[in-house]
Amino acid sequence: MTLAIDGGTPVRTDPWPSWPPPMDDAQRALVTAVLDSGQWGATQGGKACSDLVAAFARRSGVEHGVAVGNATLGLFAALRGLGVGPGDEVIVPAYTFVATATAVLLAGATPVIADVDATDLHLSAPAVAAALTPRTAALVPVHLAGSPADMDPLNAIAARHGLAVVEDAAQAHGATYRDRPVGGLGDAGVYSFQSSKAMTAGEGGLVVCRAGEVHEAVWSVCNVGRTLDGAWYGHPRVGWNLRLTEIQAALLLPWLDRLDDEIDRRNAFAAAVARDLPPEWASVVPQPPGTTRDSRHLLMLRVHVPFDRAFLLAAMAAEGVPLDGGYPPLGTMPALAEAGARTEPCPAAEAAARDVLWVRQAMLMDDPAGAAHVVEALTKVLASRPGPGSG
User: Fold this and answer.
1) Catalytic residue among 12, 122, 197, 296, which?
2) Quick one: average pLDDT of 312-340?
3) Which InterPro entries match (predicted)?
4) Which residues pair with 302 in a beta bridge?
5) What own/partner pairs with CB < 8 Å and gap ≥ 24 does 105-110 have?
6) Is the pLDDT at 1 greater than 90, yes or no?
7) What is the rounded CA–CA span in Å between residue 61 and residue 185?
């Protein structure tokens, strides 16, 4: 069968769903109300931000939250609110978006890049244990691709060594671990509302906290050093203006009402791919232990045969089924090393960078019948593939 990249007929010619989807009626009504009110900033007396924070905190199984300008700032604020700063080390997974590490640098601490589990690609508890030093102050597990990290072993390490735990839940809106929502499993959890995420206002983020004192500290970091009950021009600590706007909150708040239906849709698509992929060619990366709800921000596929990565990505795009190449390991990024990051041995992350490809969220929002196009195109391309480094 001739590949589309060589002039053959593509597997798919119909467009995939766009992301983000158009505003629904509830979003349009709330955004219009906020615009008409003139109360566009979170300090101007509107309710959209406070209502969003309250709803998201409840959804995360905690009492407190702070809306922020983006999730990178949220990670920074959570770390600073938990007392992490210069001289401290923070352990992060090697297979994640670079902001997980750069937020640590922003807080003045040193990222320590540890390996992920070879099967599920989430932060490995044994790798964390091997990376500990007297300077270790915190862990940042990432709920990668919408799957919850296996938090119990990580929390146990943190408890034994007196470490803070900040969950990077940027991709995991609505995911649950052992029937508990992510975000509320550590000391703080951070969500993203960037354009590609399961809930988006173009940009934005939200920090959720279990303890009142952590919430007060994070709130102060995000509100120029003020205190919750202090004077407007009282700034007893150093802080920054990291706030979300009322307009962004108005886009996000109604989204909570449809989030579960969208998660169900993505899971149906993912299940169809997992069922029909020929196991000799490729398989879906398994969920971590303890997963009770995977929000499926991405569907990660591991290819089991040798392949030329650049060719496969180009050939899949030509077939009308574009895949993403995924993350390079953080330890391979010179800028992080130059900024002082320390990298532990990370063979599992290096293997993932070679063998793992992603189906993006917009494609997962297609009808589950569209999963057949992913399976057909990948099988077609792999069957005709040149080997690694050929051509």
Assistant:
1) 197
2) 98
3) DegT/StrS_aminotransferase, PyrdxlP-dep_Trfase, PyrdxlP-dep_Trfase_major, PyrdxlP-dep_Trfase_small
4) 283, 356
5) 105/336, 105/339, 105/340, 105/341, 106/72, 106/76, 107/76, 107/79, 107/80, 109/79, 109/84, 109/85, 109/137, 109/138, 110/135, 110/340, 110/341, 110/342
6) no
7) 9
pLDDT tens column, 253-271: 999 999 999 999 999 999 9
| pLDDT of 295 over the 50 cut | yes
Q: What is the pTM of this model?
A: 0.96
Percent of the chain predicted with pLDDT > 90: 97
Please indicate whether residue 197 is annotated as part of the active site. yes
The angle subtended at Cα 89 by Cα 86 and Cα 90, nearest 5°, is 115
Domains of the chain: 25-257 (3.40.640.10), 259-383 (3.90.1150.10)
